[in-house]
Every structure is written in C-alpha cells, then in structure tokens.
Amino acid sequence: MTKNVFVIGLNALNADRLKRLRGCDDVVFHPLLTSDEVSDTQEFDIPDMLARAEATLDAFDGSIDAIVGYIDFPVSTMLPLLCRKYGTPNASLESLLKCEHKYWSRKVMAEVIPDHVPKFTAFDPFDDGALSRIGEADLRFPFFVKPIKSSGSRLGFRIDSPEDFDYAIENIRAEINQISEPFNYVLDQADLPDDIRAIEGHYCMAEQVIGGRQCTVEGYVKDGEVVPYGIVDSIRYPQVLSFFYYFYPSTLPRRVQDEMNAITRKIMAHIGYDNAGFNVEYFWDEVQNKIWLLEINTRIAQSHCDLFEMVDGVSHQQVAVDLGLGRMPDMPRGEGPENVAAEFFYRVFFKDATVARAPSRAEIEVAAEQVSGTRIASYVRKGMQLSDLPEQDAYSFAVASVWMGAQKQSKLLWNYEQVMKKLNYEFSDIEE
C-alpha cells in the first residue's frame, strides 16, 4: 500500500535526495508549504503557516502516513504540533522545547551532565541593566550572547568589552522580534514550568566562552533508544567564527567520539525526546581534554545529507522518513563511493554589498564537472543585497555551498580550490 509522506518546505534539492532513499519504493512525497514560505524568508507567521498546512492536509484524499522536515525554526517547532493533530510519530512539543529553548536546555543539561555545560544566564536585552546582571551571574569578559531561540548563528556575538555588548544589543533589539514573537506562540502551546515560562521568546543567553575542535553528533531516538550514527567535524575560517566546511567522518580521536556518544545518550534520554532525529554540537578542548556541549538541534542537519550519501551510501534523510513512518531507520555505514566528504561554504566577509555578478546555471554546471560527484548550490542572484540572505551569522555571508567527496582530506581541499576557480562572483557597494 502506498505511503504518503508530507515534507514541510520541500525544495528541488531535497526532493532529489529523497528519491535515492532505501525502502521508499512505495512512498509518495508531497510538499507541505514551500521552501520560500518557511525557509527563504525572515517572516514567520506560525499560526498562518499552520493553518495553510492543515488546509492542505485536510483536503488530501488519502492517508497521511508521516509529516517530516529537515529545517530549523520555524519548521522544527511546527512539526510536533502537526504530528500531534494528525496522529503521526514525532517527539512531544515539551521534549523538543527542552532542546530548542536555550535557557531551558541548559538547565536540563546541568541536571545530568554538569561537567560539560558552561556558566550561563538568561537576560532581557531590553533591560538597560542587563550587563551588570550578567556580571552578577559570575560571567566575565569574554562571553557569548545569543537569543534563547534562533536559527543558524543568527544574532550570536562574542563579547570582549562593554562596547561589543552595546553593539550586540543594538542589533538584537532591532531584529529579535522576527523570531521571538512566533516562538512565543509556540511556547503558549506547551505545558511549561513557571520558571521557564517567565523567560519569554525575546530573552537572550549569556554564556562562558567555550572552544576547541567543533563537531556535530547526528542521532535519533526510537522507542526510547538513543542511537548516535555519525560525527561531522565543523571547520572554521582562520581567525573568525564563520564555518569554512563540514567534514565527514570526524577526525577526532575515537575515545573522544565515544565519550560524546555516551554524553548524547545520557542527555537525550533524560530529556525524554523520542521517535525523531536530532543533532548535538560539541567542542573538544584538546589542551584541557574537556568536552563541552554547545547545543541540541531537533532535526537532522540537511547540510550533512550529501556527506552521509557520499560516504555511507544514503542521505540521512533516511532517518527522518523512517522515523516519520514509525520504522527503525535503515542507515548503512561505509557503503558510499568516497572515504571522506565535505560541504564547503564560499563566504564573503562584508557588512553588506550588492551582488554585481553571480555565475549562471551553465557556469555552475561546468564548475561541478571539475570533480565527479560535486554538487553546488548558489544562494545569490545579480542585483540582490547580501543582507537579504536569510539565516546568516554576524560576521559573513555564505553565497554558495559546494558538496564533494574524495578518498582523503588533502585531495578534498585541493579539489575544492579547482572548483572555485570556475565560479566568478563580483560585488559592488561594499560595506567593510
């Protein structure tokens, strides 16, 4: 019997990935809201999005067997609401918020893995006395600030001085309502403890600076069993906070990977998260041999899909779809054509600029042909402002992604350089 799987924000790139999954010959994938509506936007009217999604589902003449997604906010927070209404498997809203509400998440972590959690406090960015209150929580320069709910690295800042804090607060106050108001709607749907309900969507976090080699543990929970299945390294550009590339499989020592997997099992079981995929971001401080848990994301990382396919033989969209259908995920290991794989981010480090030239589709195809198996996604077009790109960090703009595999890491880096020589981006009205 045909299974109908509805995918929130389905775009062409991911539709193509879904066609290559295992055990899906009897599955029909249906788009539920467009990528433009839920991802390529900075307007998140969640009640309207839910109403339109429900109208599509209610009008469907057939079974609704799964509702899945692979996108951060607002999709991640909409999924448990839709799955609860239509009776399809997913984590509960409360367990999801124990991961996505950064203050609640830190409090829950501190209950069971305190040695892996930095000092933290919540603060109101509209409180003129916020900096002194952060000091009262025993946080000193430098520290990081970020919203209690964001996506990507949006509105995240390193604070080394009062001037840095003033700059961050100015930007946070100007933009935080774009996420805080819709996130408050989600919080209103959940059964929250009083101390968490008091920390509303516009609040921010201040945290002790942590660092080291960064990575992401990808995993899922099925009927209470926590299963980590892969670790991806996150490599930054030198001297800046922006990511250069994601690399799989991790090059961290096996003992460190094993400990991260053990921490992951402990915290996800304690949260009560179940029947859904997740990923957990970590730092390993080599000097102190210290593992820090950075944050938990309640979704697979779509940036890692092609990496798993190139190395293991199938995208980990497999996890999202299998769990959505109530099945045990069928994730292979080491069955792909490559030993290593990466997603590279081509970035420009301007405050803003106008795109004067972007490569054509034909030029992108020629560039991809330099190395077999390469896939390229360009995010800009001629005439657009870089500041119109959604979900960017505070230090750069990612204008393209390049996914590629190789037999070893050094060859991968060399191949990336050959591909980028064929892509010509130009910018004008540059703000340094």
Protein architecture, described:
The protein has 432 residues and is an alpha+beta fold. The protein has four domains: 3-91, Rossmann fold; 92-114 and 211-297, D-amino Acid Aminotransferase, Chain A, domain 1 (2-Layer Sandwich), CATH 3.30.470; 119-208, Dna Ligase, domain 1 (2-Layer Sandwich), CATH 3.30.1490.20; 338-432, Alpha-Beta Complex (Aldehyde Oxidoreductase, domain 3), CATH 3.90.1170. Helix content is 34%, strand content 27%. It contains 15 helices and 17 strands. It has helices at residues 12-19, 35-38, 46-59, 75-86, 93-100, 102-112, 130-136, 162-175, 177-188, 194-197, 254-271, 305-312, 317-324, 361-368, 409-420; strands spanning 3-10, 27-34, 66-68, 120-123, 143-147, 157-159, 204-208, 213-222, 225-236, 243-248, 276-285, 290-297, 340-348, 352-357, 375-378, 397-406, 426-431. The strands form four sheets. The chain has an eight-stranded antiparallel beta sheet, with helices on both faces. A four-stranded antiparallel beta sheet has the order 4-7-5-6, with helices on both faces. A three-stranded parallel beta sheet has the order 2-1-3, sandwiched between helices. Strand 1, helix 1 (12-19) and strand 2 (27-34) form a beta-alpha-beta unit. Helix 5 (93-100) packs across helix 6 (102-112). The termini are far apart.
CATH superfamily of the largest domain: ATP-grasp fold, B domain
Label the overall shape.
Answer: globular
CATH top-level class of the largest domain: Alpha Beta
CATH architecture of the largest domain: 2-Layer Sandwich
How big is the Rg? Answer: 21 Å
Strands ordered across the widest β-sheet:
12-11-8-9-10-13-16-15
Total strand count, please? 17
